[in-house]
Prior knowledge:
Blueprint: H1 14-24, H2 26-42, H3 45-59, H4 63-113, H5 117-120, H6 123-140, H7 146-164, H8 166-213, H9 215-221, H10 224-276, H11 282-323, E1 345-347, E2 352-354, E3 359-364, H12 367-377, E4 388-390, E5 393-394, H13 400-406, E6 407-410, E7 419-420, H14 421-426, H15 433-442, H16 446-450, E8 459-460, H17 469-482, E9 487-491, H18 499-513, E10 517-521, H19 525-529, E11 533-538, E12 541-546, H20 548-554, H21 556-570
Parallel strand pairs: 3-10, 3-11, 6-9, 9-10
Antiparallel strand pairs: 1-2, 1-4, 4-5, 7-8, 11-12
Helix pairs in contact: 1-11, 2-4, 2-7, 3-4, 3-11, 4-6, 6-8, 6-11, 7-8, 7-11, 8-10, 8-11, 10-11, 15-17, 15-18, 20-21
Amino acid sequence: MTWVPPAAGDLAGPFRFLLWLARSQARRIALAAVFGITWMVGLAVPPWVLSRAVDQGLVDRDLAALIGWALTLLAATVLIALLSIARHRTMTKIRMDASFRCVRTTVWHTSRLGASLARRVSAGEVVTVGITDVQVVAQALTITGPGVGAVVAYALVAVVLFSSSPLLAAVVLGGVPLLAIAVGPLLRRIESTGGDYRTYQGRLTTRLVDVLGGLRVLNGLGGKPFVANRYEQHSQDLIRHGYRVAGPTSWVGALSVGLPALFLAAVVWLSARMAAAGEISIGEVVAVYGYVAMLVIPVSSLIEGGGDLARARVAGRRIIDLLNLPVPRSADGTARRSPAGSGPLVDAASGVIIRPGLLTSLVTARPSDAIGVIERLGRVGTDAGREVLWAGVPIGEVDREEFRSRVTVADNDAELFAGTVRDLVAGRLEPDDRRIQAALRAAVAEDVVEALPDGLDTVVAAGGSDLSGGQRQRLRLARAIYAAPEILLAADPTSAVDANTEAAMIERLREFRGTATTMITTTSPLVLDRSDEVVVLVDGRVTSIGRHPDLVRSDPDYRALVSRVQGENDHGRDDE
């Protein structure tokens, strides 16, 4: 599958997006239309052959003609079956291609959004788009095969009927549009109620993701029953909205079968009266019945296709809403400047300067201030223009791929995808067992792997849900270390481990990183004492810079903060 991202015009509306999906596989769509037309039109052949067999074989008592038309009917039936198989295979490929194309497009765009995605769209909304909406949109492309064939077959049957009886042709031409008009209000109701249902579905999925992510904490706090009751209440709300969508949807399904059947009965009754009056032959009555019975299929396809399009308009709107989220300016691929060396990295908003070759600790009483600095320096979730300089170059002007290869943010909330420990530590890089073992040792995580049944080949669940908090934290740090960036920005990487492990982690990190630039946010005296430089933030601004012993003597705010943390640590800190 050749994939090209949609242009801005393709995201102007749901139907423009559907048109882009169709254009992306134009040849297959054209083939599906050909198969759809030949299959639908082919369905009109057996009634015509059967009418010839009746008039020329049975009525005229001509055995040879009867056998000839019977063999023709058999051949036509076999050919129709083969066309049906080819049509179905082609439509399946179209749906799969559209589904994969939608998924790839959303994954591509969410990767460009980076960490800013979490602040704009809930996790449940992204999951619902990727699982539900793409399937609904892909299903709507079915209209390009059977839908086109239904229109052509409908017109052809009307022409054939006109040659037999203008009255019958007029009934057919006028009856089918009336069927479409009858289901029109239902399609509009599906669209309006489907939008509300889709909103509630996204919210409930978000709640489920949050619950699963915090299940251990909830269980420890005894809050699981309360959350379960709340989730049940919201599930019932979703069910009620689902009933509002299911009502008109079920009516569309029923009418797509029932109305064509009533239409068939009316036309057969009229043709029988005309045959009784001698206006048409018995064979033509059989043909008319076959034609109209055949029309049940294209009419049903058109009605069902209308329902698919109504649902696709709702689902497509959610997809393009996600795809239209603006990408941070630094991710648009227009940046070209490349900083020389590893620094310094300067955050103008806070006054923080990360000097190259040092292990720098950033300490503040408000964790949000430290996280803000990390996000700005690491170009996470911001437009990162000229407020951060790297070796004098605004990081917004640095190519994003280059920046990500040279600067790594180690975040305690970074996702752990399901897979082996080897793949988890290697991340997007090629796995090298020797380097992986070295990274694990630097993060004091070798004991984590040794305790697992298959070592590096052990499969870890999504999110690391089968690991403890301390184990997940050390594996995240190992992944960041394995990337070997020029600059490593680590957000409180020792917060979930005990004092002994923490001391080992900072010593090994210093040893492993050597003269590579490293910054850690922390309030731990153990880490601060082993840092080359400590930067103190108060109310988001730098107030002091120095080594830990000097700051303890000279900065009362720093001394008070460290003393309070030391007192808390004296009460003990549990690992994992």
